Amino acid sequence: MNPKLENLWEEVRELTLGTTPQIDRLHTPPTPLQFLRHYLSQNKPFILSASSATTLQWPATTLWTSTSYLLHTLSSSTVSLHLTPSGQADSLTPHPSNPKSLCFASAHVQRTLFSDAVDAINASNKKDLSTGFVAYAQQQNDCFRGEYGALAGECDSDVAWATEAIGGLPEAVNLWIGNELSETSFHKDHYENVYAVVTGEKHFVLLPPTDVHRMYIREYPAAKYIYSEETGEFKLEIENPLRHVPWCSVNPYPLPENLEKEMSKFPLYYNGPKPFEVTVKAGEILYLPSMWFHHVRQTPDSRGLTIAVNYWYDMQFDIKYAYFNFLQSLPAPQEPTSHNPLTNENASDEDENNREESAFL
Q: Is residue 339 scored above 70 in pLDDT?
């Protein structure tokens, strides 16, 4: 490894983030000044516990535990439904014409009645994969205030302490409804993210922006799943004209039989400081700072659903962003060729102007 980069990873943790895999847990909401001084300006995450003092006082906390209520309230609503073969979209998968290389695959997205979306999510479960797809109801376009407008009054329109500290309202508020099969690959967003779980749980693996070289970001050809309702089968098509997407190459949860191979391919990730691991339970809020790398899995509630709302606030493109771009531009530590199979057409520096966003959160 590069000793200077190793020193950076360790120093950031010793000075600011802490040396354990846990992040700060608050039992009362921060004041805007506390949030600004201790978290926003330091690009430092925290979780807000669902104690008696901080449990979300939204009608959604109780109303959304009833599927019949959601179906009734959204009976005339048409929503965006993302379909994939295995629950992984905006993620890496074997190239359709060259399985030895990888491509960046996006979900098949279709508009459907909310009731049909719920049926599709319930149909895609571990007990029966005969449906041939995993469904996830979400869209990163302020969908909560658009597609799910009938529910908008049941959550706060913004997060008061974040709005005052940041100096503006959220640019987008999104709703996410899925089950345990939906998973988000490692990525980062250029937003200050305030993430509230309403039902079920979300499990985050986090790394700070300083650890960018541990993510093995490479450029991959963009592809999209096309789903046929007639055959129940997916086709993966490379985009035409060809487009490349910079994306993280690391999977933090490889299959046991692949672990040794993954550790050999990505030693900076596996041999570096442990990532931060966070479980956000119903009623809790995670502050996820801009440019933090995050991988997300979820556990559903007793009826098989996980529901969350997140608030995206614009980040400040300030000196921290300039520092990150400079760090990112530095060459990655050199490794033996046998340990780095990503030095082919997939390997290139990340396009600084390409904003990474995940279809799953």
A: no
